[in-house]
């Protein structure tokens, strides 16, 4: 019976010819209205992408999602739902935009996915969603191993009678919060802790202990402890912080928020948005906590020594890997890899988006004088600086005194700007757009945008029509090569705003049609004065 071997050989040949992209697509389960419910319940943890085939962001995500599905095969199932063909399912789960990613557990909508959208980011994020909600630690060795982690952990001392609640506790990512609750713990109070843990499971890792002796070296009484990662241990702050407030979901959340990062956290691509809700100083250097903890902490300890002197003044401090943020440093601060050598770049970014860079080299304290008895000096951009180890302190003193000049990414201010459409750059934005006596229509564009090029003749005609009106300005700014000011949300091109007199802090986004009569109708409604339209025949 030679048929069987031949078929096997054919099958193997077909498998070997399977393109990588095609095999990856097969790793993504396709779900729809007819089969979503019963197929979703077969998977303990599943990440579902709700998308539309025409969506540009969906197309960009697709290859990353497929790569992640291949890496997560056998660990977490990835699935997708085409909302243009399965509107009932998408409507049931509240999908209003694309792509929308949600985490499902045994078929139930568990949480929105708010992690990275690269293949490696999806893989790292979703692997942390697997396994039990809370790991049961049965020995001191278990506790030590759990806390001694790159990230951190929440550990609850939970009496056996309440173990049914453990399913509410979740694996977290960045720091360690530990709850030790004796067998006499009041059930409602423990319930509050576990509910809070369930809400925060995307950020922290949790475990529980039922034997008080396991944690006798850490506590003898009921408490909540926050353990910072061992790799970030230092002499300037405690590695363990004790929660002493009355336990509620709000109070525990506040405790974690206020203590989770400590004096100088390690900023990553994953946590940067959470850190940047406050004014933030960051030192960027060759940081690597996976392979060189001691070397990574060399500069961090020096930042922390200075940070300890300025705590409580509204500025938080952080360190970051220079390579991870290289594109951002170049685009947002104009700092290239050759600018700082091996020394850290130091920047400040405020919650309002204002940016500052430290021009001096970040040198260490205790620099010895040279043979002539004078401190060494260094020069940058034609300015001489002392290398006395006090550069960071001087930078901070100038910042708090308001003496620093903001860094603004800007094209040169045009020498001549008499055309009907005024050219605005970041350096001239305040002078032109925020002129308190002018109504300004400002278009943010990209030089390569085809929609912007299509709009150009209409926009130019609008500017010519209004050229004789002394109270209105029609302007445009290249948003690729200039910083867009706070208050202007530019996600695509062209984006058009109107900044009228008396409302410069609250510009109005133009969302109408892009014909001359439509622009004029809008301006007649929004302008602070009657438009001057000499010789223009209205067709409104």
From TrEMBL:
<dbReference type="InterPro" id="IPR017937">
    <property type="entry name" value="Thioredoxin_CS"/>
</dbReference>
<feature type="domain" description="Thioredoxin">
    <location>
        <begin position="407"/>
        <end position="528"/>
    </location>
</feature>
<dbReference type="GO" id="GO:0003756">
    <property type="term" value="F:protein disulfide isomerase activity"/>
</dbReference>
<keyword id="KW-0413">Isomerase</keyword>
<dbReference type="InterPro" id="IPR013766">
    <property type="entry name" value="Thioredoxin_domain"/>
</dbReference>
<dbReference type="Pfam" id="PF13848">
    <property type="entry name" value="Thioredoxin_6"/>
</dbReference>
<dbReference type="InterPro" id="IPR036249">
    <property type="entry name" value="Thioredoxin-like_sf"/>
</dbReference>
<protein>
    <recommendedName>
        <fullName>Protein disulfide-isomerase A3</fullName>
        <ecNumber>5.3.4.1</ecNumber>
    </recommendedName>
</protein>
<dbReference type="Pfam" id="PF00085">
    <property type="entry name" value="Thioredoxin"/>
</dbReference>
<keyword id="KW-0732">Signal</keyword>
<dbReference type="InterPro" id="IPR005788">
    <property type="entry name" value="PDI_thioredoxin-like_dom"/>
</dbReference>
<dbReference type="GO" id="GO:0005788">
    <property type="term" value="C:endoplasmic reticulum lumen"/>
</dbReference>
<keyword id="KW-0676">Redox-active center</keyword>
<dbReference type="GO" id="GO:0042470">
    <property type="term" value="C:melanosome"/>
</dbReference>
<dbReference type="GO" id="GO:0009986">
    <property type="term" value="C:cell surface"/>
</dbReference>
<comment type="similarity">
    <text>Belongs to the protein disulfide isomerase family.</text>
</comment>
<keyword id="KW-1015">Disulfide bond</keyword>
<keyword id="KW-0256">Endoplasmic reticulum</keyword>
<dbReference type="GO" id="GO:0006457">
    <property type="term" value="P:protein folding"/>
</dbReference>
<keyword id="KW-0677">Repeat</keyword>
<dbReference type="GO" id="GO:0034976">
    <property type="term" value="P:response to endoplasmic reticulum stress"/>
</dbReference>
<feature type="signal peptide">
    <location>
        <begin position="1"/>
        <end position="23"/>
    </location>
</feature>
<feature type="domain" description="Thioredoxin">
    <location>
        <begin position="1"/>
        <end position="131"/>
    </location>
</feature>
């Amino acid at each position: 019976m030679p048929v069987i071997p031949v078929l096997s050989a054919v099958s193997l040949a077909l498998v070997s010819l399977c393109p990588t992209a095609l095999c990856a697509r097969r790793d993504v389960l396709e779900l729809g209205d007819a089969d979503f419910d019963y197929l979703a319940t077969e998977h303990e943890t599943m990440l579902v992408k709700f998308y539309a085939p025409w969506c540009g962001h969906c197309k960009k995500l697709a290859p990353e999602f497929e790569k992640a599905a291949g890496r997560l095969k056998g660990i977490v199932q990835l699935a997708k739902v085409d909302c243009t063909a399965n509107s009932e399912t998408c409507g049931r789960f509240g999908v209003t935009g694309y792509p929308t990613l949600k985490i499902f557990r045994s078929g139930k909508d568990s949480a929105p996915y708010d992690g990275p959208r690269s293949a490696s980011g999806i893989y790292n994020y979703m692997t942390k969603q697997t396994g039990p909600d809370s790991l049961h630690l049965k020995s001191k060795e278990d506790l030590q191993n759990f806390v001694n982690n790159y990230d951190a952990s929440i550990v609850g001392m939970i009496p056996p009678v309440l173990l049914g609640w453990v399913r509410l506790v979740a694996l977290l990512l960045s720091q360690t919060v530990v709850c030790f609750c004796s067998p006499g713990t009041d059930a409602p109070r423990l319930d509050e802790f576990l509910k809070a843990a369930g809400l925060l499971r995307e950020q922290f890792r949790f475990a529980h202990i039922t034997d008080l002796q396991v944690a006798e070296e850490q506590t003898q009484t009921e408490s909540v402890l926050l353990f910072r990662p061992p790799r970030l241990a230092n002499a300037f702050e405690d590695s363990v912080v004790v929660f002493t407030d009355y336990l509620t979901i709000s109070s525990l959340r506040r405790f974690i928020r206020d203590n989770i990062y400590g004096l100088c956290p390690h900023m990553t691509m994953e946590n940067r948005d959470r850190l940047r809700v406050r004014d933030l100083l960051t030192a960027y250097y060759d940081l690597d906590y996976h392979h060189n903890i001691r070397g990574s902490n060399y500069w961090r300890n020096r930042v922390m020594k200075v940070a300890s002197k300025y705590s409580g003044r509204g500025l938080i401090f952080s360190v970051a890997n220079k390579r991870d943020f290289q594109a951002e440093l170049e685009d947002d601060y104009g700092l290239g890899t050759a600018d700082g050598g091996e020394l850290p770049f130091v920047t400040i970014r405020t919650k309002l988006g204002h940016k500052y860079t430290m021009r001096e080299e970040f040198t260490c304290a205790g620099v010895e004088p040279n043979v002539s008895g004078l401190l060494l000096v260094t020069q940058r951009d034609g300015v001489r600086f002392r290398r006395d180890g006090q550069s960071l302190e001087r930078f901070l003193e100038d910042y708090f005194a308001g003496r620093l000049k903001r860094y603004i990414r800007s094209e040169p201010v045009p020498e001549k700007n008499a055309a009907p459409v005024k050219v605005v750059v970041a350096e001239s934005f305040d002078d032109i757009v925020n002129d308190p006596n002018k109504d300004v229509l400002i278009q943010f564009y990209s030089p390569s945008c085809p929609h912007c090029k299509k709009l150009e003749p209409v926009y130019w005609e609008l500017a010519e029509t209004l050229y004789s009106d002394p109270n209105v300005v029609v302007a445009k700014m290249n948003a690729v090569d200039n910083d867009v000011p706070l208050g202007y949300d530019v996600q695509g091109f062209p984006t058009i705003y109107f900044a009228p007199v008396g409302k410069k802090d609250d510009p109005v986004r133009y969302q109408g049609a892009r014909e001359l009569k439509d622009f004029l109708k809008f301006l007649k409604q929004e302008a602070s004065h009657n438009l001057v339209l000499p010789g223009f025949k209205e067709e409104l």
